[in-house]
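About this split. The held-out portion is used to measure sequence recovery: a designer receives only the structure tokens and must propose an amino acid at every position. Recovery is the fraction of positions where the proposal matches the reference. Here is one held-out target exactly as it appears in the evaluation file.
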């Protein structure tokens, strides 16, 4: 099986699992997100230490961070559950006192990065998929994901055909300004389609959301490229044939999710 076919089949299967899990119920969404977070945390841990490792403390912290946001967004429990996040940051250095790492502060820094860089952005998706009345409403989250895919697809199609001007040669020499503009255009088309079929927000609000997704999704991609280049690896992992690892597939969400969350909260205020 050649690389293109393998990549295509993997991409279709990946998209079907992701979309169907989000649509099916809030519980399948939560289970899927927990799996993704655990895979991402341990993939990142293995990248940093240059060997396959399981981050038990990082995994536990990531689970608690996600569940605290899930329970609060769905109003299963009150605001106090978010204090779990503060307790995690207090507990990690204390736990490290009783472990035998040669470089304890390096390990603490890695654990904090796993929480802030990975667990927190995915946890904020809870506030996108639950509305202000704690009703599970997956349309906006699906729009966000389809915009991410549209940005990647548009950038690839245009960049591979007419891309000439490097966007950020230092960390990602193959990305071009022309490709990025193609990504923006296709993302705005997707934003318009969501406005047309689900007028949850005004056209301007949908288009602004599309622009934010393209800008910060691209930056998230570049940051992950910076991580891989600093560690001298091509892919973050090999879990998804033809697509690399979990971080490779979700790098655009990592920086854009917090921005989208803030933007949607501002819309509620306006």
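Reference sequence for scoring:
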């Amino acid at each position: 099986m050649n690389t293109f076919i393998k990549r295509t089949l993997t991409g279709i299967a990946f998209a079907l699992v992701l979309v169907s899990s989000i649509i099916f119920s809030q519980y399948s969404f939560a289970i899927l997100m927990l799996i993704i977070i655990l895979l991402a945390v341990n993939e990142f841990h293995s990248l940093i230490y240059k060997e396959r490792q399981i981050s038990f403390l990082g995994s536990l912290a990531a689970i608690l961070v996600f569940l605290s946001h899930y329970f609060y967004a769905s109003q299963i429990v009150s605001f106090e559950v978010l204090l779990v996040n503060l307790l995690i940051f207090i507990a990690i250095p204390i736990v490290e006192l009783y472990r035998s790492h040669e470089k304890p502060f390096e390990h603490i820094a890695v654990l904090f990065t796993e929480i802030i860089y990975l667990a927190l952005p995915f946890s904020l998706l809870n506030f996108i998929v639950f509305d202000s009345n704690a009703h599970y409403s997956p349309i906006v989250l699906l729009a966000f994901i389809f915009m991410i895919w549209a940005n990647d697809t548009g950038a690839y199609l245009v960049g591979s055909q007419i891309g000439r001007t490097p966007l950020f040669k230092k960390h990602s020499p193959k990305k071009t300004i022309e490709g990025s503009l193609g990504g923006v255009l296709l993302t705005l088309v997707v934003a318009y389609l969501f406005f047309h079929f689900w007028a949850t927000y005004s056209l301007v609000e949908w288009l602004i959301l599309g622009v934010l997704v393209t800008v910060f999704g691209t930056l998230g991609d570049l940051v992950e490229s910076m991580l891989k280049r600093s560690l001298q690896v091509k892919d973050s992992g090999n879990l998804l044939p033809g697509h690399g690892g979990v971080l490779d597939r979700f790098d655009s969400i990592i920086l854009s999710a917090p921005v989208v969350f803030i933007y949607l909260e501002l819309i509620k205020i306006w």
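Annotator remark: The chain is about 75% helix and 5% strand.
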